[in-house]
Design goal:
Keywords: Membrane, Transmembrane, Transmembrane helix. Helix 2 runs antiparallel to helix 6. The longest helix has 36 residues. With 397 residues, the chain is an all-alpha fold. The chain contains 16 helices and 2 strands.
Length: 397
């Protein structure tokens, strides 16, 4: 759905940039095909544990956007620009979220992009591609309806997952999916039939008049000239007119200030680039593990499996940020253990006896029933933990 939201932008850009290449409509089918690499980014975020592999897969997605055929360089460039935005957004989700899932664009924003691009397209005098604007917007609306159903069903699972009764989850999903599919099909046909009429033309005329009124209001705020024309004094000498005087050279002080401003801006850019590279290197060195497959450190079996708990460090912003970044690269079991440590360190238990508390003792002292069971599964069991266990542990936290 997010990929389709930017298809009107590609249509408008091909017209606005006609000076670079002849205007050629981007293929809607190829644009929808580009959603497959974007969908693949979710599995890359969820499965990759090493930064090098993560960046390599995101680079391959950009290569896929380049390989997909395009009518000209402008269409390929716009598609690469949109793909780069999705890649940057994917990396942001990898480092800043816990479930790595992307959210759909709000429907009013998607409709606003389509209407604005269509207005610019009509402003350029191109009305041939209106059908593709309408089709892309209709598809966005239909996909949004499917997404709403899936989100509602996911919330239903979350609420009733721990229910003691037997709930037919699969039957409910099939029934809801059939109803949603019928609604999407009928709504798509109805919208496609209605969109063939000229109902959009009055709206665009109203939008154009509104924009013109806003521009007139803004220009009206500017100071008006006095209305007097500059008088050019002609000097005569002898029998002929003298040529007009050339403009004087700018004052030397303004030239010096201009060069000083340019040098200061260059110094600031170099300094910011240096700080950014230094912080990136520090982050990669401290928080990322570039380990080879199969090189897992073995610990002696006689080692005590009790969680090592230390006193909580100072709650500074920098340390909290570093903890947050490291938390994003942990698996479900490690996240549960990290939350358990944070809960115990922040509790009011005696600090001297804190290392001797077991999970059951801490659960009784804090009166948090259910915390120890999930922690023991993450700490001692060979059964892998899931994202549901992480969400359940968050409730106890």
């Amino acid at each position: 759905m997010n990929q389709l939201c930017f298809y009107p932008l590609a249509l408008t850009a091909s017209t606005l940039l006609a000076a670079l290449a002849p205007a050629s409509r981007p293929s809607l089918a190829l644009w929808m095909l580009g959603a497959l690499p974007v969908f693949f980014l979710y599995y890359a975020r969820k499965r990759c544990k090493h930064l090098s592999v993560l960046l390599l897969l995101h680079g391959l997605v950009l290569a896929c956007f380049y390989i997909i055929p395009a009518a000209n360089g402008v269409n390929r460039g716009i598609r690469l620009l949109v793909g780069a935005g999705f890649v940057i957004y994917s990396l942001w989700l990898r480092f800043r979220t816990e479930d790595f899932a992307s959210d759909p664009l709000p429907l009013p924003l998607a409709a606003g992009i389509a209407f604005l691009c269509l207005f610019l397209q009509h402003y350029q005098g191109n009305n041939v591609w209106d059908l593709y604007y309408r089709m892309s917007l209709i598809l966005v609306f239909l996909l949004y309806a499917v997404i709403l159903f899936l989100q509602s069903y996911e919330d239903f699972l979350t609420v009733n997952r721990l229910s003691t009764g037997k709930i037919p989850f699969q039957e409910i999903f099939r029934s809801g999916l059939h109803s949603t599919a019928a609604f999407v099909l009928l709504s798509g046909l109805l919208l496609l039939a209605v969109s063939q009429f000229a109902w959009l033309k009055p709206f665009l005329r109203l939008l154009r008049n509104g924009l013109a009124a806003i521009l007139r209001f803004l220009f009206g705020l500017l100071p008006m000239d006095s209305g007097t024309e500059a008088v050019v004094v002609e000097q005569q000498a002898g029998g002929g007119d003298m040529p007009p005087m050339e403009a004087e050279d700018p004052f030397i002080l303004w030239v010096i200030l201009e060069y000083v401003a340019m040098i200061a801006l260059l110094i600031v850019c170099v300094f910011l680039l240096y700080r950014g590279i230094r912080k990136l290197i520090t982050f990669l060195r401290d928080r990322m593990q570039f380990s080879l497959p199969g090189t897992v450190s073995e610990q002696p079996e006689s080692m005590d499996k009790r969680e090592h708990l230390e006193a909580a460090p100072e709650n500074t912003a920098a340390k909290q940020k570093q903890k947050w970044f490291s938390f994003a690269f942990l698996d479900a079991g490690q996240k549960i253990r990290r939350m358990y440590q944070k809960k115990i360190n922040a509790s009011g238990l005696a600090k001297m006896s804190l290392p001797f508390y077991t999970a059951r003792d801490a659960e009784k002292s804090l009166d948090v029933e259910g915390m120890a069971e999930i922690y023991e599964k993450a700490r001692y069991s060979d059964v892998p933990c899931t994202d549901g266990d992480v969400r359940q542990m968050k409730k106890y936290m």
